[in-house]
Amino acid sequence: MASPPKPWKAEYAKSGRSSCKTCKNSIDKEVLRLGKMVQATQFDGFMPMWNHASCVLKKAKQIKSIDDVEGLESLRWEDQQKIRSYVEGGGPAPSTNVVVPMEYGIEVSQTSRAACRRCSQKIMKGEVRMSSKSAGQGAKGLAWHHANCFMDLYPSVQVEKLPGWKGLKGSDQASVSALVKNIPHSTKNGSDHLIFITYEL
């Protein structure tokens, strides 16, 4: 019988149909989830038992090594860091607010080569695109997003202060500003996604 390639699988939920095996609540679409690979009962293979990442990372002795997590490199940088910190610290971190310095930018795409980190769709030439990366990361850590995808991920960012904002045409600035106005003040399970950010612009 084959062993699973890795004991854990990390990804953002593709739908809202799965339930957390720890807290028994549903895992909303796009929420980070961790699946513990277990022997399937109905076929010869393995399947993930999904949990909210936050539920797993509250418990000790769950993930023993970074190499035990499939899909880690596909996660947003701040989510990768949560898992790395858990492993390196030997368990859940103390209940404190962790500041994740981030750097952002905005521009009009000059090509159609880049794909949006959130929706995986191409960002077409001439579209406004927005970037994010952890402070200190080089170009390799740069992640591009469609403007609407970026605002879904980072709703608290003040777009008019981003590098590149003043270089946009008035119509592009208006389109992005309209996205900001449409962001709801609160979202379901918003507490699962709080990121404390400092701006380095």
From TrEMBL:
UniProt keyword Metal-binding, yes or no: yes
PARP-type domain segment(s): 8-91, 104-184
Pfam families: zf-PARP (PF00645)
GO MF entries: ATP-dependent polydeoxyribonucleotide 5'-hydroxyl-kinase activity; double-stranded DNA binding; polynucleotide 3'-phosphatase activity; zinc ion binding
Principal localisation: nucleus
Gene3D superfamilies given in the database record: Zinc finger, PARP-type (3.30.1740.10)
Localization (cell): Nucleus
GO cellular component, one term: nucleus
Keyword annotations of the record: Metal-binding, Nucleus, Zinc, Zinc-finger
Nucleus keyword on record: yes
Protein name as it appears in the record: Uncharacterized protein MANES_05G087700
Species assigned in the record: Rhizophora mucronata
Lineage: Eukaryota, Viridiplantae, Streptophyta, Embryophyta, Tracheophyta
